[in-house]
Amino acid sequence: MKKYLLVSLTILFAAAFVWAADATTVEPSVDIEAEATLSWGVNVEGNTVKHGFKNEASWTVKFPLLKKADRTSTKSDVPVYGQVSLKDVELNVVSEKDSNGRFALDGKVDDLEAKLVVYGAYLTVYNVPDFFKNYAQIWKPIDNDKKYRAADHRFRGAFDGYGTKIGYANKDFMDLDVGLKLGSSSNWDPASASHTQTMKYFDGNTALGNSEAIYIGDVSTGTGTWVTGKQVRFPDAGWYYFVKKNSADPTTYQYAIGFDLSMKPLDKMLGLAFTVNTTLSKNYPDANLNFGVEATSEPMDGLKLKAGFDGMYDFKAASNAFNWDTVFTAQYKWVGAGVYVASADTWMGNNNTSHANRTDMAVFAQFATKGDKGDATNLVEGLDAGAYISMYKLLYGLSDVKKFPLLVKVWGAYKVNLNDAMWVKPFADVWVESDAKHGNSIGLAYDLGVKFSPVEKVEVKAAWEHGSINKNAYSSATQRKYKKDYVSVVDHSVLDSTFYGQFVLSLTLTY
């Protein structure tokens, strides 16, 4: 029998949770969303012409049992207490078209946090403290959807592990939060890799975790391969053999330490944050020293300023390589701009095999206004319009004018209310891109059309699209971290030798 010598600090929280009043179940109700669309279109790709009618529908019938919210165990009015918080807890009975109309339970808990609080000081029990901060995250691409993952476009100077944070927080004193983090590379009972395979359905919008794995290929012939979220973040829709934990916990027993500080000495006028973390041995997996600093300011209504820096010394790389990135952004109501700079061995600094890695940078500027009168960017009621310009891998692009990475987007839409229920909304979008993918030419794509609503919840749309774009992309000069590819924003260009366009006329009814 194995014998363990344990030196542990264990906090036992009550098994029967005493929830705050907001954790009660909701009153019986039903949320219904349904949409049906009939469209006729013609799609031209080179010498191939596709046309015809298309019938589409989607619905969601949801009976909420628990509304989405944070749940926190009730604490007594005492200076010493234990607290457990569940983040974004929700539970529903749901039926969707993709589930063939069957009802099923749909619920989740995004995260759990547990800590012991003693007169403002605290000790975290769960979850693992972050041994990094991402203060220098680049802005989102101009066209994005829920498949966008910031982690795919990030310099992550970090290491992982287990541990705790001992700190002190006081919102009444400059919103101060300071803490010391203690960590280990593994634990006294390391988990093995999972050998249990189950079938799991991915809808095309569900992310695969870094340690999770699916089998892609033909199981009967064994010609496929196991991939993790580091290779395929969003698997195509379908059923897959699935493994929850693809790798075992490390068996190197090393330690690490870190320090966090955040405060707002001038309230909204100035916010500061700082972190430093280091492993205490080169035998620690991903051994490094990383640090970051951030400053934020809102000196006037509508103006937001942010500056961030992240850096990392890699103890295992030659000459203790130092990599870093930094960002500065400014936003005032309708206008915004930003500068991002990163060192050679980062997602921004990496180049393809024909060019050496180098420190590089990106810039953007944008003007945008929304038609909603309640929006802070509103200039004219009913007008959605804007212009965006960006340059990614600017220093690399300057070395070759033909590959200068310029991206421009201009868009506009104006909603005219004809009466209380009837409205019409013409719209247009134009993308122009110049980079490696399009060679000596530029990439050009546009769409234009009009939407018309004769009565409430009925919409007619006529749209022409010439060329096509990729969402969640910055430019073909930038490489995504997990998918080692270079994706341009303009995919099919109007100026390409192959014609690519489509016209669609549709009628949509919504519930």
From TrEMBL:
Domain Major outer sheath protein C-terminal: 325-484
Cited Pfam families: MOSP_C (PF02722), MOSP_N (PF02707)
Keywords: Signal
Domain Major outer sheath protein N-terminal: 80-197
Family annotation (InterPro entries): MOSP_C, MOSP_N
Domain of life where this protein originates: Bacteria
Signal peptide: 1-20
Name under which the protein is recorded: Major surface protein
UniProt source species: Treponema vincentii F0403
